[in-house]
Design a protein that fits this description.
The complex is a heterodimer of chains A (about 950) and B (about 400). Chain A is mainly β and about 950 residues long. Chain A is about 5% helix and about 55% strand. Chain A is globular, with a radius of gyration of 30 Å. The two termini of chain A are about 45 Å apart. Chain B is mostly beta strands. The chains are: A mainly beta (about 950), B mainly beta (about 400). At the A-B interface, helix 5, strand 22, strand 23 and strand 29 of A face helix 1 and strand 12 of B.
Amino acid sequence: MRYFILFIALLTVSFSNAQDTGSIVGKLTDKEYNNEPLAFANVLIKGTTKGTTSDFDGLYGFESLAPGTYILQFSFVGYETQEIPTEVVVGKITQVNVIMGASAASLDEVVITTTTKRESETALLLEQKKAVEMKQSIGAQELSRKGIGDAAGAVSKISGVSKQEGSSNVYVRGLGDRYLNTTLNGLSLPSNDVNKKNIDLNLFASDVIENVSISKAYSSKYYADFSAGNVNISSKDYSGNGFFDFGIGTEINTNAIGKDFVKSEGTGHFGFYNRYEHDPFSVIISHGFDPVNGGTPINTSFGGAFGKSFNFKNGSKLSFYGTGSFENDFQYRKGSNIDYTNVEKKAFETSEEFEYGTTTTAMASIIYKVDNNNTFKINSLFVNNSSDKVGYFGIDGKGRNRDAIANTDEGFYQQNIQFNENLIYVNQLLGTHKFDKLDIDWGFGHNFVNAHEPDRKRLSFENYQFALDNDPNTNPIFYSNVDFDNQRYFQDIQDEELNGRLNLAFKPFETVKINIGYNGRSKERRFNNIRYGYDIIDNSGIANVNALNSFFTLDNLNLKDNQGTYEIKVIKPYPNLSNTNRPGQPENTYKGKLDIYAGYLNTEIGFGENWLVIPGIRVESFEQYIEYDVINLGVNGKDNISASDVLFLPSLSIKHSLKEDHNIRFSASQTISLPEFKEVAPFVYESVSQRIGGNPDLLGQKPGETYTNVKDVSYSKILNLDLKYEWFVTKSELISLGAFYKQIEDPVNQVVAFDATGTQRFFRTGDKAKIMGVEAEIRKNIITNEDDESQLSFGINATYMHTEQSLYSNIVGSNFNVSFVKDKEELQGASPLIINTDINYSPTNFNNYDPTATLVFSYFSDRIDALGSGQLGNVIEKGIPTLDFILRNKIGETFEINFAAKNLLNPTIKYIRETNQGNIIVTSPNGKDVSNYKKGMNIGLQLKYSF
Amino acid sequence: MKNNLFLVLAITALLFNSCASDDTADIYITDNSVVNNTTNNTNTGGNEEEEDIPINAAEYSSDLVLEANKTYTISGPVIMAEGATLVINEGVTIKAVATGADVYIAISQGAQIIANGTASKPIVMTSGDANPAAGQWGGLILLGKAPINSVTGNATSTSEIGSLPYGGTDNADSSGVLRYVRVEYSGGAADGSSENNGFSFYGVGAGTTVDYIQAYEGADDGIEFFGGTVNVNHAVVINCQDDSIDWTEGFTGSITNAYVKHGAEHDKGFECDGYNTDIGNLSNPKFWSKPTVKDVTIVGLGSGTGNEAVRLRAGTQGIFDNIAIEGFEEGFDLDGDVGANSDNPTGTGVINGDLDVTNVTFTDVTTKMKNDTGETFTEADFITGDGNGTGTDYAAWGAGWTVGN
């Protein structure tokens, strides 16, 4: 409601302009770059102090001008200055559109209505140059050139950023998911995964993205929970005469092709599932375990986009943009699944996993441009993302489990059949309003995420070697130590968030800009899960472990007197109902709430031509509350915990222009890191070989408990320092050097807790963590044509860093304890070295044919994937090089045929644990269910046609 | 406009959705079974019919006294807090609601249980179900302040069930008395991978008296020791589905006069770890599990059934004397790594005499010793007095108060 009133107020303000003067508006375009809009050019009214700069769309405007004749002066670094006489008439808008060029001026005044956005690399570089803050972006143009299909790939091409293979984890300067924020058009985005804070950037197909940027230095307009960076996706929109394009693509993966794919029963080809309305007990009674045929493993994609604008006589404009796409992806991994702590607990040296993924994206945006000063935008995004995995572990009959019953040396075998579907709805309303000395920029959004994990099936067998011996008299048997060794599991998470932002930029003088703003977000999560275990009564042997539907029939359910072959168990029965063969209540539930309200003030003060100083302060109040009801904590299982605080966070950034194209930037800020709901709620998630749970101590101490090395704090304080030098050699060339330092107090790590089951929990493991590093980036043209367009160019960025965190020798909390043998360690997820580089060749000497060939390489060095506690060694993710080749061919104006060959080096993806017995290959708690595997190369072809 | 958009998205979703199948049946349950037998009658000594007395699930900070020969019911965790004593007099029956793991009795560090049964009037903790079966409730958990090797100094660890602290530096700590106590049908799964045992001894000290106990028809281990120094005499484990007797985390007490008999579902007779392998041996000075095990009979299902009597792993030590093993494929199976400084120096224990068997008789046992420790030693280095073991005289001391043999 509050937002609604705000909205009405803004509307009222924006339509009340006086009418006794006239105005001049217009658009500047860049002759040197296909007549794209020219941003940040200076426009002066000669003989007055009035001046402005063109915006990202090349637009500029002067309002409330007394009638008369003026001379407008247009200038831009490296371009010829132009002077144009202009008449202003009362109540009228004079339009002056100018083409700016480096060479001799052509003074044609042309009204052009091309579409242009911040998607060209040059425009983004220009933005970076002019920007007040330290920010790096990658636009739609670069995305397509480098063959990047989604936002995750996009950010990993930015310096200091790397992506974990086999997961959605993105690390910025070694800081992972919990230290990042993701926004869409400046408004918070929800996560699609209970284990993550950030949404999987893979979900944003390139048709949705105008550009992706990472701000690695804090500015007071961001939420205080800012450590490594803020990823912002600007969604695409359109403002031209209308277009429609359609594309289809096909791709094969060299590992997946030719395999007989399997997937969960009941899931659709498009990644949907129809049984959410039913009680899980009905689902397990009605449907069997066995996976079904997963189709031919050839990836397909199709999608289209359209745009249309309507210009009205009063100067206003209504624009539509819509896009929809579907893509799927078959992956096959063959490797090992090994759980090794201080001994080998479970080892499947030969395992395979089939994964079928889909992403369906639809986005629509409507922009209503009232006039040059007032714009409204509605943006709706829907994403459905699914993953359908079937894993077979121990297929060689040589699997080992130290707690096996029949045979601890061979024959242990497990299956995991798992479907995850995430439905994401984002709706936003945004507006900008410009007045004489005041710009207003606001937005509010509603996010809803439904993340389902319906009917995950896990099966465990012993004596699997007998399935391979061709002797029908010997068969595998079920492993049924705990009732839940054979189980079906259901998990459901709903996240809902309302958020808003408002920024008033007031420019009292030419050299001073004051930003006053407000941010608010209110987020709520509901979580529940339930599982049913299968207690085997007749364990006399199973001939085919992939055909169990004939075993788990309703007739075989042991309803009385041991006449059946199995029973279904639930952990939390309904009162007065048995825990056997009956539906049950959710095992674990929790509800989390996070409310943040903040106001900020920062002032951009120019000193002379070359200095810009921006002091800022943010006041933020947060309240985090979690109530939970979880199993296996005795009387502590049902509880709640909350934390709140009001924070005052100062920030300072300084930009100094040494010469015209040289900048030095410095930034210092104080921020915080709040724990996630999943880190606090003491619910335990179990995957094939991992158990991960939360720890309420992260929100501080409770009265009446005794603690050792548990501080009564609910967040980490972070100090950020950044220094950067940039030289914009030409408009598409750059050299930059940077250094950074971060200090995180009371950092949180996920480590194995001392609770007799090897469950990983979150702890504030030490007093401080420090990160220091240097970054360098070069973008260089090697061959340019006579129009100064680059034909052969390359870019490279590299980050080298050193990280260190202190560790407590011993932590005793309210529920969980842990200790460390070492007193310091590197930071989890921090590769000392990260390199991204690319070479691009785009000859321009053909008439109707524009080819672009790009070779993209990236590398991160070995890093800690999981910190070892107690006597445990660390789990290390081995460094991985990636090499992709992309060839795009534009034929004429309407047709594109594109070829991509990705992962050409096909490196082995491997995790190891450091132990006294040497390095041992293990499965990552954060990666896929197999380790020591190759992804295979992806080779694909795409056709695109524009009408 | 937004509504229309939603409609379009909804229609799109429907189109896509139409490819996923449903046909899930609705289920109606007509349930005539009775779970909670709280109003059932019992005849425990007296002849008059009495109502069962409920004990509320809670953490008790003052004493609780259960009167002789009466029947009590529990329906959730009953936790005795530090300073409180649970007194259970002879002939008491405690019936647990058959809803699985979250029903158990726990004696916290600094609390005590005084359970004084007699051979003719034992104390019985069992399932309240009309058709009792293994795994219907949790079991009995004692937590003490005796040393464990998963921590350094006076730090504590937390229990698998209930997350209660245990461990310390007090060898002589007392958690009270267990005399003639039988735990039946316990071992409910607490989550996807933890189960309750019959008796769980977490860091229980030598000041505790444990004499004449039986675990019967448990879904998990019969008796499990997580460190501690407790001395257990006259222990019976019959038909427990996991390991009958299990130790880990530096258990250094003793087991004397033990009788173990496997049922159709079972794991090992003894499963013995030197330390908690998920965390490591963090004791300083370092010590390993090293109990004294004397006068023990272990009865399996026959040497053709692929089973193990005693599994010794993760660096455990132990002095076994007078053991009778009958009906197993393997008698003693040793696992470990090479070297005294390795993580799992089980073989080193044999070489140094810290893991040793004297006077043992194998009947219907195929392999007496299986050495997977990486160290080289002979059967004679590990076992002396083969053929001299007589086991325990269970028939004499087990008569009257035990069940199931």
